[in-house]
Amino acid sequence: MQINATSIRPGNILEVENALWRVMKTQHVTPGKGVACMQVEMRNIETGNKTNKRFNSTERVERVVLTQKTMQFLYQEGDQYHLMDMETYDQLSLGEDMLEQAKAYLLPEAEVTVEFHEDRPLNVSLPQSVVLTVVECDAVVKGQTATGSYKPGMLETGASILVPPYLEPGTKVRVNTESGEFMERA
Q1: pLDDT given at position 50
Q2: Which domain holds residue 12?
Q3: Quick one: 83 and 119 in the same domain?
Q4: Which of 82, 124, 140, 144 is deepest in the core (most CB within 10 A)?
C-alpha cells in the first residue's frame, strides 16, 4: 500500500529497496529553502541494522499491509515476552527488541495488537493511551501548583514521566503511549 512520506509514523513497517524496515523515529524537516522532507530512522527487520533515510514530502513509499491480532500480555521471562491469542489461546514468545516502544507501558493482562506479515510477527502496538499508577514522585512545594510546571515521577512499570505538581504517589493516570506524556487523572 503506497502512502505519502508525511504519513510515516513510528512503528510502521516499510518496504524500501526490497527489504522490510521498522520505523523507529520520524521528524518532519522544513528547510528555509527547498522541499520539506521526512527524516526517518529505520531498523531492518532481518539484519537489525539501523539507517536514517530522507524522503521528500511529495514522495510515496510502500507501507507493508499487515494482519492484526489482539493478544494479551502474560509475563516476561528474561528478554522474552509471552503473549496469548485472545481467540485461539495460542501462546507466542517475542524478543525484547520487538517491544521496544511498548515495554515501558506493559502490565500483565494488558491487551496489545500484534501485526503479522505472512504469519511472522513484526510489530507490537499499544492502545493510544493506558492507565497506570504513579508509584513515586516528588512532594508538592507550596505555591508551585499555581504554575504550569511539572515534576518527575515513576510509573508502576518503571517508566519515567513528568506529572503535574498536585499528583501524589498512588494516583492512577492516563498516559499517551506514543509520546509518553501525562494526559489526565484516571
Answers
A1: 93
A2: 2-63
A3: yes
A4: 124
